[in-house]
Structures are given as C-alpha cells and as structure tokens.
Specification:
binds adenosine-5'-triphosphate; globular; Rossmann fold; High-affinity branched-chain amino acid ABC transporter ATP-binding protein LivG; six-stranded mixed β-sheet; 42% helix; alpha/beta
Length: 246
C-alpha cells in the first residue's frame, strides 16, 4: 500500500486461519493500521490481494466487507456515548436488518417483528459477553474497560466470522488489560470466533495469540508463535526493546 511516495506496507503475506487469534505487532508507524484498512476496504491496495474464505475481497466497499463477515473496532472508542448499551448494539444490528431503520421508524408490521427478534438477539449477545446487567446504562457512564468491551460487543452484533481489533487495550491499566485478555478468550470460545488484532500490550499478545506477525517500516520482519517471536533477535531489536505504548 503506497501513499504517494510513502510505501506504508510492502509485500506483506499474512494468513489468519479459522479459529485462531492472530496478532500484528510492530513499532508506531510500522503499517499495522494501514494493513487493517486494506483488509476492511478503507483503502484499495496499490497492488496485492485480500482473500476471505477463498473469495477475492480486494477493493470491495467497507459495508460489503462487513456483510461478508468481517467486523472491526478502532484505536479510539467510537461508541454512541449518549445512548444505552443496548441501543449501541441494536444500531450495529440494524446494519443487517433487511428493511432498514426507515421502515422500523414507520412501525411497519414486518419491521416490528424483526425489531423484536433483533432485541432478543442483542440480549443474548450482551449476556454472552457479560454486559447484560448494564444494558440500560448510558455508554459514557461505563468504566473505560467496559466501554471497550461494549465496542467489541457492537462489532459482534453484525455476526462476523472474523473480528479485527485495532489496539483493544489502548489506554488500559494492567487490571483492565487482564480483564480484556479474558474477554477476548471468552469471545473466541462463545462465538467460535477468529480474531486478528493489532496490539502493543505484550502480556496480552503473548498470552492469547496462536500466531504473531511483526511489521517494521512496512516490512514483515518475523512471524511465528509467541515463544518464537519472544526469542527473535530482529524483533527484540526493532520492537520489544522499546517501551510499550511509546
Ligand atoms: N492516508 C495516509 N496518507 C499518507 N500516509 C499514510 C496514510 N496512512 C498511513 N500513512 C503512513 O503509512 C505509515 C504507516 O502508518 P500506520 O498508521 O499504518 O502505522 P501503525 O503501525 O498503525 O502505527 P500506530 O501504531 O502508530 O498506529 C506511516 O508512515 C504513515 O504516516
């Protein structure tokens, strides 16, 4: 992926296998978010291909890619802060509603039925992720860690097969990071989910990843299991030697 004269990601080949948690790590500016943006259709790669379940999804529009089963969260929290936990998840669910928000607003009978079914599905989702007791709380009133959990729950409301998490532990203290680690593990099991994440918190990455890819200046410098990555000298030099969250 080039931006004018800048090659943000160069010659990256990366596989995320079904049922795995795969992490993409690397120093600031290494090209991680650009890689996510290419996968989710925000950018069309200058060259190369993105395959999802064997289908070429290169250059599809973001909403089309979401419909095919890829959901994502962002580095910064993007909740509807004044809406409740339930409403935040319901809005995401509407993306998949056949009749759309307009017919729901008109209270057409088939829209009402679908709305009711959606509410049930959202309640089931919130129960699975441990947020059901907070469903009527306003999003901004939740502690930071739970706002992050809600963002992930909202991404799950589109029934993805693959979940992309862009620095889910950004700004978290060790306690919140540890809770997030359990949260992601739980999601993987509850939803039989495949997870591809960018993360700087090495405790989290090393504990839950099946495979890790390391980018530096847009180039892949290493890939392997957490043990292999921890011992890789190129990685230590490029990344693990620098302070986390730098
Ligand atoms: N839209 C854009 N236009 C021009 N250059 C861009 C654009 N997006 C990213 N870049 C450049 O691409 C390179 C990679 O940036 P990117 O944000 O992908 O890195 P990153 O690894 O996600 O960093 P961070 O950990 O800070 O989020 C940087 O040099 C950045 O300035």
């Amino acid at each position: 992926m080039r931006f004018g004269g800048v090659t943000a990601v160069n010659d990256l080949t990366l596989h995320v296998n079904k049922g795995q948690i795969v992490a993409l790590i690397g120093p600031n500016g290494a090209g991680k978010t650009t890689a996510f943006n290419v996968v989710t259709g925000v950018y069309t790669p200058t060259s190369g291909k993105i395959l999802f379940n064997g289908k070429d999804i290169t250059a599809l529009k973001p909403h089309k890619i979401t419909q095919l089963g890829i959901a994502r969260t962002f580095q910064n929290i993007r909740l509807f802060k004044e809406l409740t936990v339930m409403e935040n998840v319901l809005i995401a669910k509407h993306l998949h509603l056949k009749h759309g928000l307009f017919s729901t607003a008109l209270h057409l009978p088939w829209a009402r039925k679908e709305e009711k079914e959606m509410r049930i599905e959202c309640e089931e989702l919130l129960a699975k992720v441990g947020l059901i007791d907070l469903k009527e709380e306003v999003a901004s009133s939740l502690p930071y860690g739970q706002q992050r959990h809600l963002e992930i729950a909202r991404a799950l409301a589109t029934n993805p097969k693959l979940l992309l998490l862009d620095e889910p532990a950004a700004g978290m203290n060790p306690q919140e990071t540890s809770e997030l680690t359990h949260f992601i593990k739980n999601i993987k099991n509850e939803f039989d989910m495949t997870v591809f994440m960018i993360e700087h918190h090495m405790d989290l990455v090393m504990e839950i990843s099946d495979a890790i890819y390391v980018l530096d200046f847009g180039e892949l410098i290493a890939q392997g299991t957490p043990d292999q990555i921890q011992q890789n000298e190129k990685v230590i030099a490029a990344y693990l030697g620098v302070e986390e969250d730098a």
